[in-house]
Amino acid sequence: MAFKSFKTLSVIASVGTAVLFTGYSSQALAMTPFQASYQFAYNGKNLGSATRTLKKSGNTWNYVFAAKAGGIASATETSNFTFNNNQIQSSNFSRTSKILVHNNTMSIKFNPSAKTINTTKDKEQRSFAWKSGVLDELNAELQIREDLKNNGLKSQYWIADAKEVESRRFIKQGAEKVETKYGTFDTIKVVMKHDKPGRETIFWLSPKLDYLPVKVTHQDKKSSYGLLLTGYNGPQN
Q: What is the pTM of this model?
């Protein structure tokens, strides 16, 4: 079923620096609230829509990814974090999904003082040792965007999910022009490396839209998923 991979699409997150690309603005924008809308496709068929929304209240940031396909399925992911010295400090993350009458939930609580990361998936609980700079699957996209605007991508990113804290790599693969319903954009193409064979996630990030992902694709063996930008309200270069 397509919607079991909403969590992958949200990370897609999203990737080097802009000054390396001729014609791109070298001005780095500070992290700023925005909202973006997308068309969601499964195996080449458009099934629904999705949104990314970033808000700030005091020192806390709230990032939400929501997707739906009619009355059949829906999923929402929420990440709360703080942001200091160009580094995200994760606070908590949650995911809820519904396919017909079936509901699933997952949550992560980051406890830097106790040096633990606690997860709950449905009724199963786990606890992991703390990792410096650990991210969740949603705010990882924002950290990658900030790194691109500043000193370039890190060699690895520690990301927590329900079962583990694992290292992932994001590899820049040049520049491409992407057509969307919202317009045509010069983008940076970034691939997220998976350890499992038959899987590949690619992001196309627009420096003009503060490195927003304007297109995302994920291949999982014989199944494919995608997001394509349809609207945007936020900072632009």
A: 0.84
> Which domains, and CATH codes, for the chain?
2-233 (2.50.20)
Task: Tell me the Cα Rg of the chain.
Answer: 17
What whole-number distance in Å separates Cα of residue 90 and Cα of residue 227? 25
Identify whether the C-beta of residue 128 lies closer than 8 Å to the C-beta of residue 165.
yes
Please tell me what DSSP assigns to residue 5.
G
Q: pLDDT tens digits for 147-176?
A: 998 878 999 999 999 999 999 899 999 999
pLDDT, tens only, 28-64: 678 999 999 999 887 777 779 999 999 999 999 999 9
Residues paired with residue 84 on neighbouring β-strands, in sequence order:
87
Tokens of residue 165, six digits: 């804290």
Strands (E), the chain: 34-42, 45-57, 60-69, 73-84, 87-99, 102-111, 116-121, 124-129, 135-136, 157-160, 165-180, 183-193, 199-206, 212-220, 223-233
pLDDT in tens, 96-113: 988 876 788 999 999 999
